[in-house]
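=== Structure Prediction Worksheet ===
Name of assembly: unnamed complex
Input type: mixed (protein and possibly other molecules)
Chain count: two
Listed entries:
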Amino acid sequence: MSAMSASPHESAIGHVTGAARYTDELAMPSGCLSMMPVLSTLAHARIVQLDVSAARLAEGVIDVITAADIPGLNDTGAIVHDEPLLPTTTVEFYGQALAWIVAKTDAQAISAAKLVRVELAPLPPILSFSDAQAAQAYHMAPKRLIRGDAESALTASPHRLSGTFESGGQDHFYLETHASWAYMDSENLLRVHASTQHPSETQHIVARVLALRQHEVIVSCVRMGGAFGGKETQANAFAALVALAAMRTGKPVRIKLKREADMTLTGKRHPFQTHYDVGFDSDGRITALRAELIADAGWSLDLSPPVLTRAMAHIDNAYYLPHVHLTGLMARTNKVSNTAFRGFGGPQGMLVIEEIISAIARQLDLAPEVVRAHNFYGGKTGMELARDHTHYGQPVRDGGLRMQRIWDIALKQGNYPARKQELAAFNQTSPMRKRGLAITPVKFGISFNKVTYNQAGAHVLIYHDGSVHVNHGGTEMGQGLHSKMLAVAARTLGIAQSHIKIMVTSTEKVPNTSATAASAGADLNGQAVKSACDAILARIFAVLRTHWDLQDAIELHCANDQISSACGNQICFKDAVALSYEARISLAATGFYATPGLSWDMEHNTGHPFYYFSCGAAVSEVEVDGYTGEWRLRAAHLVHDVGDSLNPLIDIGQIEGGFVQGMGWLTMEELVWDAHGRLRTVAPSTYKIPTISEVPDALAGQFSTTLLDNAAQPGVIYGSKAAGEPPLMLAISVREALRDAVAAFAITPSCAPIKLDCPSTPEAILRAVIAVRS
Amino acid sequence: MTNRSIAIQITLNGKATQLACSAPTQTLLHALNAAGHSGTKEGCGDGDCGACTVVLLQTDANGVTRSVAVNSCLLPAGQLAGAHILTVEGLKALNSGALHPSQEVMVRHGGSQCGYCTPGFVMSLFATFHSAENMLDDAAVEGNLCRCTGYNSIRRAMAELIDIPTFALAELPAVNAQTAKNHEENQWLYRPANLDAALRLKQNQPQAQWLAGATDLGLEFSRDALHPKPLIAIDALAELSLLKLYDGQLEIGAGVSLSRLQAALRGKNDQRDSDLSMHRNGALRGLYTMLHWFAATQVRNRATLGGNLGTASPIGDLLPVLLALDAEIVLQSLRGERSVDAPNYFLDYRKTALLADELVRCVRIKLATHSNADAQTTRTLTQSYKVGKRGSDDISIVAACFLLELDGDNVITKARLAYGGIAAIPIRAIAAEALLVGQSLSSNLSALVRPALHAAFTPLSDFRGSADYRKQLIVNLFDKFLFEMTHTDAAAHA
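=== Predicted Assembly ===
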């Protein structure tokens, strides 16, 4: 099969000309109203009074919506019903929306919001892991994931280490803030346009809040200006609010959050605290791990259980852990309800084991990259254990991971051994600037842990002039899903992409879809699109066999806008379609796909949850300033396995973008809450995501991205592999390189672990430098 | 509620356009979006993400047209009557209906993913592509945040754009002098024609506020609230736009944009300004360094020294530089002109010596403090530093500018240690300075001044950094400066 082409994003011309529209920019019916929130000014409080009467009388105000106005269930919880759309008795986080003003303009709604009289009686807030522990404030019972006998294995281990490690949260900072608008159409259908990764769930929640059936609500998503998990559940509340206001006022109503409101109101990546106790041998091989992982879930549950599960299931990263005893908790704090974010707990779990491996390497005075490789899955045959099952019981076959191959390429791309020597020489002569180098692996499980969600649908329509509409259940957020679906449809039908249009994602085209999430968008929807195309093609082929008077056994092929037979017959696709129309066969079909072979025991957290693993490795080199803790990424070399790429331009973009986003999380993106539980970093002036200046220059040879070759993945759409989330975790190499540089500041050699807070801001790095020096 | 709505006459993408605004302070971005021009996006409303970047075409007295990238989310539309504005929707028309090269390279190299930041990147690339300096490097887009690509695809696009020869923009209608006329009749945003008119307005309405590049006040306009005070726009006043070197001193007009100052320091200006490049590695080295760290291109294109002084934020990046350079701040009113030494200008948190009827007219910096005979043997060592969570385009946790003058025997004759971010005002470490004078230059000096620097300030903790970190930086930055000045290799490295 020929490789898929590196064609530009299907909307690229729309992007660069401004013609591509986003939810809030679609032509709305005239007279569209705007909604703005009234925000709580305490993190935890009893609502004594909420008087909206003055706001109702303000200029331009059409309606004010409070909990009492909700006709259906006042709840937007995705998994359990613990998330009121509007609070009735208590405020659960600083900035929670207490009421929404519906006015003719944004400005009028903002002014009127100030007129709402809110009286709150403060309650003690829970704002930290230690607060939660003191109050035993946790959502649900602890989760456990156990293999073997960690306790005995720890006792028997030649070496042991224990510690506590915390990683910080992360705001999604999609450039397009949350947006939704809705109107009631002439047929009494509620039409909702939302910037949502999960139109079907948005439809479900809107119906729940408004006491409607799902067939009365249509949710569409044209495209998103970034999402990264932040629009998986978080869009539901805003969609429900505009739908409710549209129903009450009879007018179209919109919400487009200001950046500050978006950052204040919406959930983020979960901060984690982990207490660990690890045993290992003198080669640095881990013998046992006992760990307690605590996720800061925030005020409501949202998606925290599967996030925690994924963290627990990824604490192995690429390493075999013989005996494991994991406990998982979800702290219930008075903060925003933390949610999905690229990696979905995986990065938080993987960070822990990388932290541990660094500590092991220090303790044994071994090179970290050697200890990492020692711990890989697989290993010499004839060992006491095959080292080929994850701690949750899924087989990891060496050839399936391709980890050693990836590792070797990364070492070579990063010129690792030579750079290591050069850095040591540099550090010898440079007292106040030190350089550090690290290589880290990524192994990430692809599929939703919950088996049910691993399904997708498509609806393909061929018009009798040979042009094609492709509908599928996935949403486009910049990841290039639509471009990949276009490529899949074009390749399956054997026609040029110019004959095909990818339609706006809508619940009226494909029902009961899963979120576009878990990196599985192309895998799931691609198979569904292919199956729909195949179904129509089979019908066309039957017509052609009759037309050409061919036996059923004769194979037909389609390519380059032509359909041909093994006997030499040929017809252009367009004529074949016309012929099929004449022959009265259906030129539309649905396609469906359910990932085979998956299982997951929710009680024991064991099974075979992942269809396959997506792997990669990265080498990073940094320089740290010992006066200020400032640092610079000098070089990064990334290697990733995306199978036979459906579109190399798009996959390289996912890898590079994921890496930089991960670097932001680990180093500069710091969410700071004050003592009252108010988030103080709610704008890009205070919350710093990477700019171009923080990224090494690929054109100067300081940055490279290599796609693993000869990597077709059996059983996945055209041999491709997922690319969305896994590359984010390549950035762990940056953090480890920082640790390596910090270690170089030591005046006397030590084998104590290098403590480096996360995010590793200049302040945290300077703290670490001062600690290693004393 | 007062109705302040107006319509301004602008040239938008080459077409004469009446742009309706809910108030003169409504931002250009909001006015464009409300009129259905949705290509220009709001990513933050704070001038920090660049998604709203548009280009102002500015024609100077010599008839030279410049493409200036600005954040439309901060600019009050009322300040733009008569302006010629290009948005992403207009670029194809300027290139005979084909994609402009700045668009085409972004498509080809995967420079867009979600596409929401893309119009801003395209406009930044466009502005640089058509600028005289044509410096297509990272700085061209450092004021544009992208959350998807990781930026290297955009670098690949830039690399191709560099090789495309620039071309003159298609014939554009000249700005209509009639519509460019000042809006004195508008009582919420005055645009006086000259300094005298501006000062008269201020004398009659002392409660009115000066409005320069709007990079700080624009944050309020961006939030749609009606501004409580009348505004007097001074961004177009010729009297504030002088940038000249004379009698051994540099005069920087309060209205000179920071990018213009940067260009003059690079020696790449259009002759209207003095060439300052000879001082770039001398007395003005700290200024040049700090300009690089000051915000990003779109903000530097609008921000002014006068604005930085008017706002007088304790973290205003250029203020420690002015302190270290012993700058004089020249204040003008109808009563006349007076000059205040920088240390006497800052009184308390955002309070200055500026009186209600006064305006910062310019800043004067003496460049030749040594006589010619001394110049052979005396030297000035100076540098500035800025520490933030992110290297580029960040607000400082601590900023500093240091200056040492040495005689022929390497003895310090003058010391200036000026800081921002550590007190209610930008401030000098006077006690430490006094200790340094009379000492020979060596890296051991840090031990001498450390106790004085430790004792001098009690910075606060905030969401940018802790008090402890700030205290460490006060000392460490001076250590770093001494190290760099005493190790030429390190100085070159920096």
